[in-house]
């Protein structure tokens, strides 16, 4: 199995007989960017990983971690093969001891895993089943306590939260005034680093400050711009933990979704509207996409199965808020050409665009719903 994200991108591109220029064109980048990703000179952001996964016809999980639930067989090197042969010869009890010892070698601490899963989402679902009682929203402080994690507040200079593993696990959260929903997501991502057994560092940061201005504004680096693979996995765990898949299935399968409905559920689960919309895209990638824009610029994208455009269309509803600004929070919706939002739009294809403007932030959040073909 290719053991790095750049190798997985390169190998999969070659399997599909795509040139770097062809792949770059499919996801709206210039060819040198693909070369840099494949050489390891640059790490792709989470947003770019989503685009690459779509273009390369693999899952984001495969690009991030190498886990491919469809293609189970990968080539492995001789040392890996020898190790797997040794592992396969052991009894279940000895296998568990080996895993514990390997984790101890890596971290100096004991990690016991009674049941193994492949993805962060599966670990989150297991935690929900084993330790979380209805009704939601989940009490993260209670969960941390049950997991043996001590949660404290401190005047942090580096990030909005830090997970530290020494003699016992500690989570430090920034003491300064913060948005409750945002702080919950920070805490959930730090719990993820404790739960995911292959996260073996002794310290993890959540929402690191770029500079003093970030700290003063109480905002760290956006979760969708992170370039750390383990932090991406922590975000996957956190979003599943805070908004369980079975609840989404119950609430949103075969139902009409709009911004007001999503806002209601975001408040119910104590998460931000942007996060809930992102989780909705993750739940139904064939149906939704989410974009945050500022003027003519698209700041953040959370796309599903289709690649989004890189620049805000001047005739989109989102752009109308900057042509005719609103003095209060306002939602505008309409059916618009799919070409406003998707690179691979078909002739005469339309989508539903719902955009909400927040004058305090000066930004627009757009939910794009793909209509079923008639």
Automatic annotation (TrEMBL):
It holds the Pfam family Peptidase_M78. InterPro entries: Cro/C1-type_HTH, IrrE_HExxH, Lambda_DNA-bd_dom_sf, Rad_response_metalloprotease. Gene3D superfamilies: 1.10.10.2910, lambda repressor-like DNA-binding domains. Residues 9-63 form the HTH cro/C1-type domain. Belongs to the short-chain fatty acyl-CoA assimilation regulator (ScfR) family. This is XRE family transcriptional regulator. It comes from Niallia hominis.
């Amino acid at each position: 199995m290719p053991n790095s994200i750049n190798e997985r991108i390169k190998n999969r591109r070659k399997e599909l007989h795509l040139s770097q220029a062809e792949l770059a064109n499919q996801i709206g980048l210039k060819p040198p960017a693909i070369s840099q990703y494949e050489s390891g000179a640059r790490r792709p952001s989470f947003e770019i990983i989503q685009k690459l996964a779509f273009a390369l016809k693999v899952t984001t999980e495969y690009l991030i971690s190498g886990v491919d639930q469809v293609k189970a067989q990968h080539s492995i090197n001789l040392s890996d093969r020898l190790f797997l042969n040794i592992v396969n010869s052991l009894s279940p009890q000895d296998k568990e001891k080996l895993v514990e010892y390997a984790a101890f070698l890596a971290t100096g601490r004991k990690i016991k895993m009674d049941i193994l899963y492949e993805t962060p989402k599966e670990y989150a679902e297991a935690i929900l089943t084993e330790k979380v009682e209805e009704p939601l929203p989940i009490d993260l402080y209670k969960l941390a306590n049950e997991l043996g994690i001590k949660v404290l507040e401190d005047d942090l200079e580096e990030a909005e939260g830090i997970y530290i593993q020494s003699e016992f696990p500690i989570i430090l959260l920034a003491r300064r005034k913060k948005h409750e929903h945002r702080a919950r997501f920070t805490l959930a991502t730090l719990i993820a680093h404790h739960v995911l057994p292959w996260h073996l560092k002794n310290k993890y940061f959540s929402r690191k400050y770029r500079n003093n201005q970030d700290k003063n504004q109480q905002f760290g680096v956006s979760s969708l711009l992170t370039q750390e693979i383990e932090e991406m996995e922590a975000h996957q765990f956190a979003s599943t933990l805070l908004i369980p898949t079975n609840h989404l299935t119950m609430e949103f399968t075969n139902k009409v979704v709009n911004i007001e409905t999503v806002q209601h559920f975001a408040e119910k689960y104590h998460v931000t509207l942007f996060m809930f919309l992102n989780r909705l895209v993750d739940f139904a990638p064939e149906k939704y996409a989410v974009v945050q824009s500022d003027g003519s610029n698209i700041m953040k994208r959370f796309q599903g199965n289709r690649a989004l455009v890189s620049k805000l269309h001047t005739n989109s509803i989102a752009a109308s808020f900057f042509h005719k600004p609103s003095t209060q929070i306002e939602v505008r919706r309409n059916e618009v050409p799919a070409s406003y939002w998707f690179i691979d739009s078909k002739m005469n294809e339309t989508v539903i665009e719902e955009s909400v403007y927040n004058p305090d932030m000066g930004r627009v959040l757009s939910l794009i719903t793909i209509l079923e073909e008639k």
